[in-house]
């Protein structure tokens, strides 16, 4: 069973304690009556990661906040999922907010996630039950990984890196959809193409909106602004910053490509329609003068010399063919079809 | 009776005095001959909130200004409702201007509001008779709220927070209207859709216009710029600042969504119209050659061999059907309908 | 007679000397042979305002410049009316350039105006004979106004304030024109609407262009940059700065509104035209199959059984009515009209 | 003969030496074997202007560079005419690059020009044989001009000023072309109008592109950045800077005007076309029902009561006229034409 | 055989050692078991350039990194080809990333390239087997070139300069394609023109995207930020910076030109189509009233006086010609064709 999709009705605390020579992993359910002091009590030279998925009741949140001496405004913000990515420095801990984007069962999930980074612990608050941190759990379980040898700040970096990698994966899927749209536009463009373009465009808009403030967050973290992040880790944070810049770059490129495709789609739809209308109009225009001629000799005047002429009928046909052919030649010469 | 919609012809001063262990609430009417010195005379460790709704005569304003030693330029500005949000620091007091947005009886009200924040008082000047401060009054009336334990700066924060929350509520309504417009555009788009889009677009424009300068105001207030705001309150002000950034973000997202809907509306209107015109033109084009043939055999030439031929009429029908069917097949093959 | 529209062929110097307890007002004509030294000779604790309207000959300008020790580049600039708003600090005096906008006889006048602000004098050089300073003259003539108690810097503020107020008045007129255009667009939009939109749009463009650099000018003046402007006056200058920001804001709002109206106009013109074309095409399409049927029975084939049938004519009418009605029902069902 | 259009195959050095009490003017041809040391040898209190038009061979350029101790990179840059305007400070001399724009025989010439400004000399390298410096030569030849009393820095200012004045002249011509285009758009707009708009638009784009970096160049020169330019001259340089800002302003205004004209052109072309199509369609629509009626009574049914009725023909005419008139009234009422 | 297209399956190290009085050039294949210590061991006053084309296995990269004491993050980045241009300062060496653009066999190649610049060595990691460095190799092989007399920093400059020159060459090709597109648009514009415009537009977008961050890289390198680059070389780096600014300028000019061409293409396509439709509609409109008249006299009423009139037929012809001619005159007068 995959640990990341566990059902957490009663708000489960997923806890991983690790140091270079060992690790332990256990779950505490909220309804058991959590002893928050135990949570706070972290053994020496150990890093603790407390992960809380799927939201938890306000009361639990407040107890936890009191235990870790977290400001009431932060507690309020954790429960508020319209927050944009930001970082706040409360000396003893950092409060970091971000959006996590990933695909679950072919659906794009946008999840609000908050972190508290202390000296030897990280608390992560997820909105839903899934996340993108499976590989981090695996690396903690392995003896010789860098994460086991590093502290809470490196864990924080790993979490942010996993989130940013999630954006890359979503962008890859969008890139493929743009390629497909491009093919469609050039061959058969229908209203579905339009809707697909619109969906991809909106997804890109949201990705851009969510990644943009993360830029400032990582820029701040990589700039020696706090003692909670060691200089050695700052180098890694700057790498995350570079990745974010690449994501912003790519979304902008994709948006330009899409804008081009929207224009191309409009032109090619209208081009094709105009071609149809032109051909139809040419057909009508060809027959209208001929119908007129037929109409003339359908008149019932008593004195119409052509009517009685023996070859009148054939001559009329000849005239009509001549007119039709001249018109076709004229249209061809004018390159009208 | 709701206190916020009281009729204030003679300019009523709504006064709330409170400290942690008590509060009093009373109204002074302008026509009574207000003793302004009493207004200024605030008991020790008490915070006074003077709220003046619905505009008041210039003379009263000037008396008030003299009592509280407010600069004549400020007095002038209070009466001028085209001001944009701003803050001015006069050492002894701050002058803050903002726009308040709320719905009253399904109509969007944009109200100009000014504040004077002194050491132990806040004076608020509303343009109309309604406001968004009911919850603040309730919190003052309750014993154990944070507002009762805090000073004038926290009251100022609460007022700004209530104003910004008003923006969120209006945005929520606009968000629902955008959702409805989207449905309309995809199903039946008429001129009403166009007008609805335009109205929402203009509302967003105004919200953006009014909230934008408030950003600078709260940024200044949260940055240790004045002693009138205590550091503990600055943290709360910065929270308001974050909310304002979120509102700006949301208006921008909504505007992008609307721009997409306007384009989609245009395309889908023109797409549907073009389909109609194409079908109509195809019908005409089908019958014009047939009418020509009928015209030919309606000619009265004496010598027309087909006329006398026994199966001429049936043959003509056959030819016409063949022509019509070939055209239909041709159009189908070309995917013209 | 209004003093501001006096004919000034020979370049009249309009001079107002004032101090808190008196004022004098007189005119010197250029052709009299101006004694420039007298101009320079200002009595103690008196402020002198020299106003020169309608341009004056280069030679007079040069004499004046020499008297007041003005740099030749400034003298050159005064005569050059393509200058944008700017301020130049020459220690002993400030050189300020601006555009004045007002309506005279329903026509929008854009006038170039320059100022020299010295310690106890202001010289203003207008391009045309009208100006927006009438109210300032009245305030100087009255004993108890603030302007009489203040110095040259406050006069300078009053002149700039009057100029900026002129922009507000023009914007108000434009606002009314936009309201009228909006009504026109929704009811009857013609080419005149298009021209009206274009005119308002260009006016807004010019206002924006002229007011924009004035922002920097007043910002500089309000920032303690020069001793020529006292701190007390700087407060007033900052008020002018706020007004300028409001004007810029309003022009931007108006431009967005206009852009919306242009789009709406285009859509509603094309919508109405398309409706007309659709109805016309539907009428044609209804009759073309009927005409074909009539054509068929107009053919002269000898052997046409229907022709000799007694009820053929009536049957044909029935068929034609059935076809027409089915088509109408079909079109109605498809919501084509 | 005009000195500025002299043929310079062999690369002619046009030299002007001047001081307040005299000047000399002579030409050295490259093929004579130039003694570069003489060029460098400038008499005391004399300013030398060496002008080299129409490009000169790389070898000459290198000799010159060695004589005046110019950095090889500069020598390379002088020969490279895709450079944008810039200034480089090499302590002993400044290297300034610009674009010169002027009309020669109704054709817009864009010429690359470089300057070396030393303590007592200016070297100018023109790409072509014409320039905009005639008035400067005249002022050097006159005894009492400011240029004769000033040094190399003032000469440099004069050269830049002449270049910037050239931009103004070109803008004036473009302004007139825009006025003409506006008239055309409102009266008869054809494809030529479109091409004219495009040409003016591209010219404005190039002017904007070339003048923009010159802004930074003059801003740097006017800011006390180098001892090669005296404070007194800096004032003049700042005047050139102001002119450049005006040119940028004007190009932006022109571009906005043109954008408006492009939209107006599109609308008025499509408006006129639509009017034509509507009238044509109305004519067709009027006659199609009438033709149908004529068709009905052209049928050859044996039993058609109306046919034998004495007034059938006249009645039919009456019906047809009634139908036509009702349709016209209907169309008029709907304001379709 | 051209050295730059050598097949490098086993990852070949192409090494050039040079000093002012000699140079050596040799290749080491990875499979030989590279002695990395030898690579690091650079003779005194010698500059070593190690070029690795076509990617190399991760293990080799790691050995190399250990030898030259390169940070693991850099080693990771070298293998990651979605990096944008950047520079990182690791005190002992600089890590520089860029994109190289060139044409190989008429195809546009975008190659990711990384550099390590140490005190006396440069290591370059190319993604593919081709590069733009042939001229640099030639200059190293020649005795008297500046590169032979300079150190690793000048080599680094030469490499960047060659990359930037590659952009110029690609831009030149794109410039020619834009010229061709312009001709096409004015003469025959088809869907191919549209695709060509789109391709050029996308190429420009990518060039802009890749060159933009290189601006910051060279700006940093030219600003005395590191001791690894000598002041004399900084001057050359700043020259590269100027070239990059020119490339950005040119791409922006090209993009504006293309935007103009896209609009022109749309207008001219729609203009031509509209002309066709108008002519076709005019032809139809001319014949429809005439057909109606013919229809009238094709009716079979027994009592039609005109039918029996001797000149009825000719009179009808006259009427029809008069109608046709009046319509043509009317259309001509209205300038409809």
TrEMBL record, chains A, B, C, D, E:
<keyword id="KW-1003">Cell membrane</keyword>
<keyword id="KW-0813">Transport</keyword>
<feature type="transmembrane region" description="Helical">
    <location>
        <begin position="311"/>
        <end position="331"/>
    </location>
</feature>
<dbReference type="InterPro" id="IPR045861">
    <property type="entry name" value="CorA_cytoplasmic_dom"/>
</dbReference>
<feature type="transmembrane region" description="Helical">
    <location>
        <begin position="279"/>
        <end position="299"/>
    </location>
</feature>
<dbReference type="Pfam" id="PF01544">
    <property type="entry name" value="CorA"/>
</dbReference>
<dbReference type="GO" id="GO:0005886">
    <property type="term" value="C:plasma membrane"/>
</dbReference>
<keyword id="KW-0460">Magnesium</keyword>
<comment type="similarity">
    <text>Belongs to the CorA metal ion transporter (MIT) (TC 1.A.35) family.</text>
</comment>
<keyword id="KW-1133">Transmembrane helix</keyword>
<dbReference type="GO" id="GO:0050897">
    <property type="term" value="F:cobalt ion binding"/>
</dbReference>
<protein>
    <recommendedName>
        <fullName>Magnesium transport protein CorA</fullName>
    </recommendedName>
</protein>
<dbReference type="InterPro" id="IPR002523">
    <property type="entry name" value="MgTranspt_CorA/ZnTranspt_ZntB"/>
</dbReference>
<dbReference type="GO" id="GO:0000287">
    <property type="term" value="F:magnesium ion binding"/>
</dbReference>
<dbReference type="InterPro" id="IPR004488">
    <property type="entry name" value="Mg/Co-transport_prot_CorA"/>
</dbReference>
<keyword id="KW-0406">Ion transport</keyword>
<dbReference type="InterPro" id="IPR045863">
    <property type="entry name" value="CorA_TM1_TM2"/>
</dbReference>
<keyword id="KW-0812">Transmembrane</keyword>
<dbReference type="GO" id="GO:0015087">
    <property type="term" value="F:cobalt ion transmembrane transporter activity"/>
</dbReference>
<comment type="function">
    <text>Mediates influx of magnesium ions.</text>
</comment>
<keyword id="KW-0472">Membrane</keyword>
<dbReference type="GO" id="GO:0015095">
    <property type="term" value="F:magnesium ion transmembrane transporter activity"/>
</dbReference>
